[in-house]
Amino acid sequence: MLHSYRLRLHRGRFALYWREDGRSRRYSLGTTEKVEAEVRADAFIRAMAQARAPTITIAEVWERYRERLKGRPAYTTMAYEWKHLLSFFGDLRAYLITEEACRRYIEYRRGQGRKDGTILTELNRLSNALNYAVKAGLLDRAPVIVRPRAPPPRDRFLTKAEARTFLDGIAALHVRLFCVLALATAARREAILGLTWDRIDMGRRRLHLTDPKAPETAKSRAIVPINDRLHAELLAARQRDHIAMGSTAFVVQYRGGRVASLKTALAQTCRRSGVEGVTAHVFRHTAAVWMAEGGVPMEEIAQFLGHRDVTVTRKVYARFSPEYLRKAAESLDF
Description:
Distance between the termini: 68 Å
CATH superfamily of the largest domain: Intergrase catalytic core
CATH topology of the largest domain: hpI Integrase, Chain A
Shape: elongated
Number of helices: 14
Mean pLDDT: 88
Number of domains: 3
Radius of gyration: 27 Å
Strand content: 5-15%
CATH architecture of the largest domain: Orthogonal Bundle
Strand order of the largest sheet: 1-2-3
Structural class: mainly alpha
Order of helices and strands: EEEHHHHHHHHEEEHEEHHHHH
Low-confidence stretches: none
């Protein structure tokens, strides 16, 4: 494991002290100059770390970390992320990752047309895996992972006219149901695709986004009311798919099975409807913007979105409220 080194004077010369196997150790740095001693100490510590470095590879670290996340959405996502990281880092010993190797990976992915946001996500996951390895005692220290800067947040949201046009351009009924659910609940994509009929109370008109069988994650999910538009869509879907009360079938389904992704279907609808830039997340963002524009308090919007901290909601959506900075503007009137 990583030792805690201390730099101290010993008989007029600087030395490194640390404890190992229950005993105090000392290494003379052979100099009376502190700056020189610090340089020599750094070289010594690096050499010691390399000599003791475990043989575990990045591939092994990744798999150990992925197993720890089994049952969570990240477990599946990591399988896709690893396909790209494998060719660069797979067989490399964990302690040998360098900042230059990270920079080459960034350029490699950019050359494939990937945006910095995607690359950042992949390298963040790699960093998380390495930090886990340290906590698990697999590594003494985690190497520094150089990452691209986070891109500015996407601010695409739909007007209500655009939303109607987009819905009119949808060819498949299950895609339409997903879009209406997303706009009416502000739920995340995975929450909607995992929603089953037994969590929809049509009598009380409430929808439970939290799956009681799924492991708890950092992303909270809400219980939201069902508005008139969504109620009509759900009734039609239940009749169309012959769904019995209390059924555990998926609400958004295709040929009786769960839908894995709607990325292609949404892209096709964008081309067909002429409404560009629509992704699953755009619906969630749009719903929050509509609520803010309608004067809904930030605390209620936070509950709808499943935000545990209303500060996050306020930071993103307060500017869409009709009351945003109104008092400040009025104070400047003359």
